[in-house]
Amino acid sequence: MGLSLWLMPNPTQLQLIQKVLPKQPKTRPVSAASYPEITPHITLASSTKATQDVILRAIPSTLYPIPVEFQKLEVGDHYFRSVFISVKKTTELVALHEHIMVALDKDGASPSAPVFPHMSISYIADEDGVAERKKAADELRATTVVEGPETGLDGAESVVLCCGDSEEERVYLASFEGTEVWIVRCEDQCNTGKCYIK
């Protein structure tokens, strides 16, 4: 499927987010390709034409931590965007994305980044349908995701992730700090438990 550039949460936040991602449900049958283990990230760009050298050249020589603010829990119509959190287009995030897209385009890599910016939290196979994707989103709202005015944040469109196994360990994330850009080679099968290799 090609190479991608991912903006990654700092390691502590990455672990917290990974703990609350949906797992295969035990109460209903779903496809083996649904609910694989995924690594939360923002896709800055993907290309089926780019070589690793081209991808490396597209990354700015100086990188600073990028604030990533959650906006809304959404259900999509594509496997890789089955259930995702849309992200606010902050100046820093847009500038990094545009720099990378322009550099890749100049090298003839035909980059893409559909529905930029977003953070996928579930991949659900097409055969499980929109109903399963909506069910996954509803279950997240019941256990993990706080939306809208209830977040205590400004604006109607805001999301907080409730991370932690108990009330004492609970951490509320309305954002994360993007501290690394990963180059990943995307595999085309997700039913092996992991979708990507670094």
Question: Could you explain the architecture of this structure?
Answer:
It comes from Suillus subaureus. This protein is α+β, with helices and mostly antiparallel strands and 198 residues long. It has one domain: Cyclic phosphodiesterase (Cyclic Phosphodiesterase, Chain: A). Helix content is 24%, strand content 30%. It is built from 4 helices and 10 strands. The protein has helices at residues 11-19, 52-58, 91-106, 129-143; strands spanning 2-9, 42-47, 66-75, 83-87, 118-122, 145-147, 159-163, 171-173, 175-186, 196-197. The strands form 2 sheets. Strands 1, 2, 3, 4, 5, 9 and 10 form a 7-stranded antiparallel sheet that branches. Strands 6-7-8 form a 3-stranded antiparallel sheet. A hairpin with a 7-residue loop joins strand 3 (66-75) and strand 4 (83-87). The chain is globular and about 45 Å long. The relative contact order is 0.26. Mean pLDDT is 88; it is low at 191-198.
Overall shape: it is globular
In the CATH hierarchy, the architecture is Alpha-Beta Complex
Low-pLDDT runs: 191-198
Query: Into which percent range does the helicity of residues fall?
Result: 10-25%
Number of strands: 10
CATH class: Alpha Beta
Helix count, DSSP H or I runs of 4 or more residues: 4
Question: Largest sheet, if any?
Answer: 7 strands, antiparallel
Structural class: alpha+beta
Strand content: 25-35%
Give the total of domains: 1
**Order of helical and strand elements:** EHEHEEHEHEEEEE
Q: Rg to the nearest angstrom?
A: 17 Å
Q: What name goes with the CATH superfamily?
A: Cyclic phosphodiesterase
User: Residue-averaged pLDDT, rounded?
Assistant: 88
**Distance N terminus to C terminus?**
14 Å
In CATH, the topology is named: Cyclic Phosphodiesterase, Chain: A
